[in-house]
Design brief:
The complex is a heterodimer.
Chain A lengths: L2 H11 L4 E7 L8 H11 L4 E4 L10 H12 L4 H10 L8 E4 L2 H7 L1 H10 L2 E5 L12 H6 L3 E3 L1 E2 L5 H10 L4 E4 L15 H10 L5 E4 L5 H8 L4 E4 L1 H8 L3 H9 L8
Parallel strand pairs in A: 1-2, 1-9, 2-3, 3-4, 4-5, 6-7, 7-8, 8-9
Chain B lengths: L7 E2 L2 E5 L2 H18 L2 H15 L5 E3 L1 H7 L3 E6 L9 H14 L4 E6 L3 H13 L2 E7 H6 L1 H9 L3 E5 L6 H14 L4 E3 L10 H9 L1 H14 L5 E5 L4 H7 L9 E9 L10 H4 L1 E5 L1 E6 L24 H9 L2 E7 H15 L5 H15 L6 E6 L7 H7 L6
Parallel strand pairs in B: 4-14, 5-6, 5-8, 6-7, 9-10, 9-14, 10-13
Antiparallel strand pairs in B: 1-2, 2-12, 3-4, 11-12
Helix pairs in contact in B: 2-4, 3-14, 4-5, 4-9, 5-7, 9-11, 10-11, 14-15
The chains are: A alpha/beta, B alpha/beta.
């Protein structure tokens, strides 16, 4: 069973919504990673998406791209992130999801990556430049290590693709809320609710919304029609400014008392 | 569940892109499959290639270069004589016509040397399409003339300051732009790169180079050439030249990568000779990268070859042994420029000069009854500042 899926289902069973913050590993130095994860756990997040910096992050908007550049300037690599996580693995209480472009995994070695990542507390992987059609390059190794391979479903995915992606996704389904790259936005298309309902029809795997979610109101409104949210750019910005009050408000918005 | 792997050349290629692009790639593939055999579309393309681009381009016997080298008989395929000065217009026009048929009103493109940008801006002006071109800030500096040309043609040029501020970063931004404007925009990728179906589409629109060459040499010499030489950055002129000869096992194919300051220095753009396999911009290919899988900057005096990857079909031609890939340095390319200027009165693009230099050495090893064809992919007017600077002059 997927620990990731279980963690999300346990959250929603309480009536809460899953809250998954995205952090850029190495932004501010890898030595910050342990305290950041520990504080996020204390705030009651469901899982943590750990971004791995890459030289050519084509799916990322300016906020995450800049965080990635800062992390690269600090010498952050996939190998160093995994080593750092492994150093405090016993203190990691929530499932970690690595978000990395494919090439660093290929350079690491697919099998070795799966083993090391698993030992470091990574329970899911999101690879934004690897669509379902190409998954065989890594999926067997991830299965062996019990790491969920999460699929993104976009607004442009045809109904036939939505069905295939949804059924293939492990851990959760990452439903992209906008056409485009990551980053905060103020408006979303109206047809989103229907889109999410269609996705959820195909599966009992939880659906989380991501891309552009940046306020407690967004957290609540998306939470109303899916199992939870992923918040990236806003968290990355807040961490860079050491603004934990904003992060706390976002997490709180996912809790039962505040969801209407 | 079965997954289908599309657009492979051997183990290279594929579709390594964000999910948001998958539907657009599928639409493009379907549209292309429909129109590639559509007589009306092909006639329209032929009409413009003949009357607007100026095809067919000559296959010219370079007699003085031949005498100078003292070996094989050398022919030049004169892609430099195309409208806009290089082979890039073949593909830009083809894709712009395709975009129009697909109902797309806007075009996004990347450019390195600016030749593809100019070609795309030209095709968009001709066909009344709105055009935006991303170009690395370094290249904007190196190729100011082409930036001005694009702007004159009504295209918006956006300088990309990120990363190495060259072609790879321009591709990143063009891909981001496409992801964000997928509904009304077509991406005219300029080289035989990127996710399927781009490498195939670009090859098919460029194969006119090799198709014409094949017919011309048969007409002139009543036989096929012994060797064909082309420069390879992403590889569009080379694949266009090579493809119609791939089944002709007696025709040796030579791809020339840019060795920059020398492959051993690390400052080069030779993905096949000096890289490892990896994934960038949608394709599995040879790639300049470090041990962490981070993509490294390419280095070449020629902006058009300054890319860390190489088209997947070339990777396969290399691995299968059908084509041989070798390198030429910046300094050698400059020798190639001078050589062609002085023997034939033709100023080649710095990209093409890599092929000229390599072919001049290769020709010496061949006998006078053998035939060598060089793809002269573009003219060098755009490069005079760079060439002047490299040769110690001061034009600016």
């Amino acid at each position: 069973m997927s620990q990731l899926k279980d963690a999300i289902l346990a959250t929603t069973a309480n009536g809460d919504k899953a809250f998954v913050p995205y952090i850029m590993a190495g932004d501010g130095g890898l030595e910050k990673l342990q305290s950041t994860i520990s504080k996020l756990q204390e705030l009651g997040v469901t899982a943590i998406e750990v971004g791995i910096p890459f030289t050519d992050p084509v799916a990322d908007g300016p906020t995450i791209e800049r965080a990635g550049e800062r992390a690269l300037a600090n010498g952050t690599t996939l190998r160093k992130v995994i080593e750092t996580l492994a150093g405090f693995a016993s203190e990691i209480k929530v499932p970690l999801v690595a978000m990395t472009y494919l090439n660093p995994i290929l350079a690491y070695g697919v099998e070795q990556f799966a083993q090391d990542a698993s030992a470091a507390g990574i329970r899911g992987v999101i690879i934004p430049d690897m669509p379902l059609e190409e998954k065989d390059i890594i999926h067997p190794a991830l299965q062996e290590a019990n790491i969920a391979l999460i699929q993104l479903v976009s607004l442009t995915s045809t109904p036939e693709r939505v069905e295939r992606l949804t059924k293939a996704s492990e851990g959760f389904i990452y439903a992209v809320t906008v056409n485009g790259i990551t980053g905060a936005r103020s408006s979303f298309a109206n047809e989103l609710e229907e889109h999410f309902a269609k996705i959820q029809d195909y599966t009992d795997t939880p659906v989380l919304a991501g891309f552009g979610i940046s306020s407690p109101d967004h957290v609540k409104s998306f939470g109303a029609f899916c199992s939870g949210v992923i918040v990236g750019s806003k968290i990355v910005d807040s961490l860079a400014n050491d603004d934990w009050a904003t992060i706390e408000e976002l997490v709180l918005a996912s809790k039962v008392a505040t969801v209407r | 569940m079965t997954t289908t792997v599309k657009g492979r050349f051997g183990r290279f290629g594929g579709q390594f892109v964000p999910e948001t692009l998958m539907t657009a790639l599928q639409e493009l593939e379907e549209a292309y499959d429909q129109y590639k055999n559509d007589e009306e579309f092909q006639n329209e393309l032929k009409y413009y290639l003949k009357n607007y681009v100026g095809r067919e381009t000559p296959l010219y016997f370079a007699e003085r270069l031949t005498d100078y080298c003292g070996g094989a008989k050398i022919y030049l395929k004169r892609e430099d004589l195309n409208h806009t000065g290089a082979h890039k217009i073949n593909n830009a026009l083809g894709q712009a016509l395709l975009a129009k048929r697909m109902g797309k009103k806007k075009i996004v493109a990347e450019t390195g040397a600016g030749q593809h940008g100019v070609a795309t801006a030209t095709a968009c002006a001709l066909l009344n399409l709105e055009c935006i071109v991303y170009m690395g800030a370094e290249d904007v500096k190196r190729q100011a003339l082409n930036v001005f040309r694009m702007e004159l043609l009504g295209t918006k040029v956006v300088a990309v300051e990120k990363g190495s501020a060259t072609l790879k970063d321009a591709v990143n931004e063009a891909l981001r732009h496409w992801v964000t404007n997928i509904d009304d925009t077509h991406y005219i990728l300029g080289s035989a790169l990127g996710p399927h179906p781009f490498p195939t589409i670009v090859r098919d629109f460029q194969r006119v180079i090799g198709d014409e060459t094949r017919a011309q040499i048969l007409n002139l010499e009543n036989r096929l050439p012994d060797a064909v030489v082309a420069c390879v950055g992403g590889g569009s002129n080379a694949i266009g030249m090579f493809y119609p000869f791939v089944e002709d096992q007696d025709v040796a194919l030579f791809g020339v990568e840019a060795a920059g300051k020398g492959v051993a220095t690390g400052l080069h753009a030779a993905a096949i000779q000096g890289g490892q396999t990896g994934v960038l911009h949608g394709a599995f290919m040879y790639l300049l990268q470090d041990e962490n899988g981070f993509v490294q900057e390419a280095h070449s005096i020629s902006a058009g070859l300054d890319y860390p990857g190489v088209g997947p079909e070339h990777c396969h031609l290399h691995e299968s042994g059908r084509a041989k890939f070798d390198t030429v340095t910046d300094d050698e390319a400059l020798e190639g420029v001078k050589l062609l200027c002085r023997t034939e009165g033709i100023l080649p693009a710095l990209e093409s000069a890599h092929a000229i230099y390599y072919a001049s050495k290769l020709a010496k090893t061949m006998s006078p009854d053998e035939i060598l064809v060089i793809c002269l992919s573009g003219r060098g007017d755009k490069d005079v500042h760079t060439i002047s600077e490299a040769l110690g002059g001061n034009l600016s």
